[in-house]
Amino acid sequence: RRWRPLGALVACAALLGLGSFYLRVVAHDDNVFGQVQRYAATSIPPHAVVLADEATGDLISQPYCREQEAKPCLGVATYAITWDTYLQTTSTLADGYYKRMMKGAVKLKSWTGFNGTITVWRLRR
Questions:
Q1: Residue 72 and residue 97 in contact, taking contact as beta carbons nearer than 8 Å
Q2: Are 88 and 61 within 8 A, CB to CB?
Q3: pLDDT tens-digit series, residues 46-70
Q4: N or C: which end of the chain has fewer CB within 10 A?
């Protein structure tokens, strides 16, 4: 019986935590991963090859090459998705082929939120 108040307190804290998460991430539209996932699903052709980091590439249904191993996408990729945070940027992790492919890229859409900035680019062929 004396554990009931403690159980109620734990349940209340868990609900408050979930509510806080919902209000911060789900209800607000600043989760850039969710935004780029929706954009890719509706605005990037399903068979277009995308140059992206693994965290972003795993969210989209299009085939992708990692920015650290971009050579297989040379001459094939038509889009790129970059993710910049306070700690790192896609371009600092990228190889020379990535930098070559990004020359002349056209910015299509960008989102900034609590988890950084994600930008979708159209690559030159």
A1: no
A2: no
A3: 999 999 999 899 999 999 999 889 9
A4: N
